Amino acid sequence: MSASTLRIALVGNPNCGKTALFNLLTGGRQKVANYAGVTVERKEGRFTAPSGRVLQILDLPGTYSLDANSPDEMITRDVCAGNYPGEAVPDLIVCVADATNLRLHLRFVLEVKRLGRPVVLALNMMDTARQRGIVIDVPELQRRLGLPVVETVAVKRGGAQALIERVDGEVPAAAPVQPDDAASRADLHAQVRELLAATLTMPRATAAIDDTLDRWALHPVFGLAILAVVMFLVFQAVYSIGKPMTDAIADGFDWMGGHAATLMPAGPLQSLVTDGLFGGLGTVLGFLPEILVLFLFIIVLEESGYLPRAAFLLDRLMLSVGLTGRSFIPLLSSFACAIPGIMGTRSITDPRDRLTTILIAPLMTCSARLPVYALLIGAFIPIRYVFGVFNLQGVVLFTLYLAGILGAMLVGWVMKHIRRDKSEHALMMELPSYRVPKLRDVAIGLYERGMIFLKRLTGVILGLTVLMWFLSTFPGAPEGATRPAIEYSFAGYIGRGLQYIFAPIGFNWQISLALIPAFAARETAVAALATVYLVGGEAAGGLGHALAGQISLASALSLLVWFAYAPQCMSTLAIIKRETDSWRNVAISFGYMFVMAYTASFIVYQVARALA
Amino acid sequence: MRLSELPKGAPAVVDRVHDAHAADPIAQRLRDLGFVDGEPVRVVAVGPMGGDPVLIQIGFTRFALRKAEASRVSVRSEAAA
Ligand SMILES: Nc1nc2c(ncn2[C@@H]2O[C@H](COP(=O)(O)OP(=O)(O)OP(=O)(O)O)[C@@H](O)[C@H]2O)c(=O)[nH]1
Ligand SMILES: [Mg+2]
């Protein structure tokens, strides 16, 4: 069978729908979003065509030209040229072009054609093109290009039918290889103009709705106001919608834990189930609604096309701290998790800009920190309305996110000055058409996020929680012990050892201990605290309640600030190593964040204590 | 006139892209994006801080360019074309 496997590469300009097409063909779930530079690595999938032939499909990063100038574009260039390590030249190139943007996209088609490989052109987004009254004379285009041309709608079921039929047939003949030099490149534009004049009727260069929306969204005053409102709404919603659900889940787990306890004999096993599983994991699971609300907003924003507009508005600000508007989107992805954010920096052309972005991305508040924030805010910050509309808890959450952003700006600014960087940083960013997110895509996106969270919960977080339970339970108290049993456990000793480091910033031994598993996955801090307090028998009425009785407001604030800045999560450090191929950058990243977190927490703790 | 000096909304056409230094990758990319002789351009919006970056409509596409990038492109007003 493998003899008849056909290897197909999807290439094209950024944001033309390659990944959407890849997902439609292979049933994959790769990330699709409405901005340039979503896909930054090569992804492989396969499907069986009606003829029984197996088609292996490669999804590649978008690029404006095969003359690559950022790491993601180089991947596409190398795969097309057959220079990618471990990857033979594809049998067939499917060049994807956005039918509403042919002036730009056809030039790349011509550039790909000159490689002298078999090429099929997929005119994607035909649904939008038709809506806008764009008429393309496909037979004429096909004749003039000398390539098979098919129409596709990558976001509709069956929208790739014509493409499947075409690639399942005979592989088209390749055009002759043509040299690539300055003169022939200029020539490509002339050819595109001729093609368009002969085959395209375009009532309007842009969509009228885009022009109208941009008049507001990019307005110097209203634009910034809209941006501020959008950001603020997200954090308000996380609290107003997510919190009630979290409370309901926590109550549910308390009830189940209580029931489970009655079914089991008292002893270590009962403690593992009630304190470790229901108490520890249940507490973390309770924060799923908040995380989903956050992701709902991120997914809708990503698909709407608003994000590059936000980047446009903030570009100047980013430049002043040594970043580029292009850093905006990787940094925004880091609010979900720093790992895709750091990978997303591959679309940044300038290597220094890229490194700065990688180093500050972990300061963006990732969703794994949300349970910790939500727990502490819920326990220490009263529900009160500021100016009658803003929930004080939401305001504090917003402030913490802001603290991360300001910290990142400070670090960027310092790095810029250390390097005495006066060189030029390029932007050149395309603003896509606005799109209304499809309910189904949003639902799938949320489901995926939810599953990732549950997998972490049942994997690493479960493992660490059981370990924490073990450490807090054994060894038991000796005969005639006077203090609580947990103080004689491993956990008690380790925690008190760590306290030498963390007492100046107000952490008790339980918190100090919880910082260790948090290094593997931040949410585990919540599970670990719950377990330690439950085993210690001090968590009646829920973890929040226990914390409020055990630690001062100053310590709580200090812990919040610690989580905003601390170097955590080994996976992030591992990805920094992979993306920059340097242990030095890992060390810098860990070191500066530790110093920053410790200093900030120290100041907050001491000031809050002085004021209390 | 340079594209960076073009007032918002004024129609113009591209003259050419100038290399800021030898083998300037930014200039080459601008050419690939369609900044070539005779192509109509327009400034659609300017950034809120210091009018930088600028949003350029070229062909059917909108690109955000920093002033340093836009100043590589010389343009002429449509009437003169
Ligand atoms: N209306 C419509 N939208 C589409 C179609 N194909 C893709 N889209 C949308 O276009 C945007 C870009 O899609 P992607 O598949 O991420 O584009 P890509 O080419 O992989 O982009 P990069 O990975 O950044 O190069 C998303 O918002 C999709 O929902 C289509 O046929 N019709
Ligand atoms: Mg993609």
Keywords for this structure?
heterodimer; A: 612 residues; alpha/beta; Rossmann fold; 3 domains; six-stranded mixed sheet; two-stranded antiparallel sheet; elongated; B: 81 residues; alpha+beta; SH3 type barrels; five-stranded antiparallel sheet; 35% strand; globular; binds guanosine-5'-triphosphate; binds magnesium ion; FeoA_core_dom (chain B); transition metal ion binding (chain B)
Account of the 3D structure:
The complex is a heterodimer of chains A (612) and B (81). Chain A is built from 25 helices and eleven strands. Chain A has 612 residues and is α/β, with parallel strands linked by helices. Chain A has a six-stranded mixed β-sheet with strand order 2-3-1-4-5-7, sandwiched between helices. Chain A has a two-stranded antiparallel sheet with strand order 6-8. Chain B has a single domain, classed as Roll (SH3 type barrels). Helices cover 15% and strands 35% of the residues of chain B. Chain B is built from two helices and five strands, in the order E-H-E-E-E-H-E. Chain B has a five-stranded antiparallel β-sheet with strand order 4-3-2-1-5. In chain B, a hairpin with a 7-residue loop joins strand 2 and strand 3. The longest helix of chain B has 8 residues. Chain B is globular, with a radius of gyration of 12 Å. The two termini of chain B are 13 Å apart. The model of chain B has no long low-confidence stretch (mean pLDDT 91). The interface between A and B is large, with 43 and 33 residues. Chain A: It holds the Pfam family FeoB_N. Chain A: It is found in: Cell inner membrane. Chain A: One of its GO terms (molecular function) is ferrous iron transmembrane transporter activity. Chain A: It is a multi-pass membrane protein. Chain A: InterPro entries: Fe2_transport_prot_B_C (IPR011640), FeoB_GTPase (IPR050860), G_FEOB_dom (IPR030389), Gate_dom (IPR011642), GTP-bd (IPR006073), P-loop_NTPase (IPR027417).
